[in-house]
Amino acid sequence: MRELIRRLAPGDGSVLLIGPHPADFVSWVAGRAGTVAVVLRSYPDACRLGRAHAGRPGFTVYCGRLDKLPDLPPFDMVCALDGLGRVHPADVPVQTWRDTLADVTRRVAPGGTLVLADRNDLGIDAFVEAAPYARGDGDWFPPGSDPTAPVSLAATADELAAQGLAAGAGYAAFPTAADPRVLLPAELPAGGVAPPEALITACARPARDGRPIADPARLVAKAFRHGLAAR
Prior knowledge:
It is a single chain. The protein has 8 helices and 7 strands. The chain is of the alpha/beta class. The protein starts with a helix and ends in a 6-residue tail after the last helix. α7 crosses α8. The longest helix is centred in the C-terminal third of the chain and has 12 residues, at about 195-210. The strands form 2 sheets. A 5-stranded parallel sheet has the order 3-2-1-4-5, covered by helices on one side. It has a two-stranded antiparallel ribbon with strand order 6-7. β1 (about 15-20), α2 and β2 (about 35-40) form a beta-alpha-beta unit. The chain has a single domain, classed as 3-Layer(aba) Sandwich (Rossmann fold).
């Protein structure tokens, strides 16, 4: 993921990170962009991040509603690598995925870049693990309960187009969107190709730490062979 961001990031431009991102990733971005702003809905998380970067020039942390940010100029790059599920705080009326996307895209400068990641509810990881899906801060609503949330990259591209953005490229992230080790062009897994052994291992390893209901490596290989790995 960092290699993708490195290729897309403006050299001395402005970057907005929306939602939670790994602390080391935030530091990595801050060391490469001209200015960095981070928007978090969690006050403790915002305070923790602010202390970690206290005194860093051009680094600002905001906490609260995205639509209530100060009147800032749009950003050269906007990243929401945790998806759109943890953007709005609890005191905001329920926002649909589409409404949240509209709030996010308004922060992208003309000619700027939006990097958006989202979990595939029918991804390989969802079929391998026997334990119920972990309930955490991002699970206020059951998966699949929002009819506006796209269920494919093509549908996501349509949603972006409705907001005035053109989808430049789509990638399938493995083993998960939240913790990718490999990014593949979306059309590659859909083409029924045989994946490299290293990719099978990377996809299957998280399942072996839990309670797999099937051999993770065999399931990954079958998903790729039948063109289902990115669906």
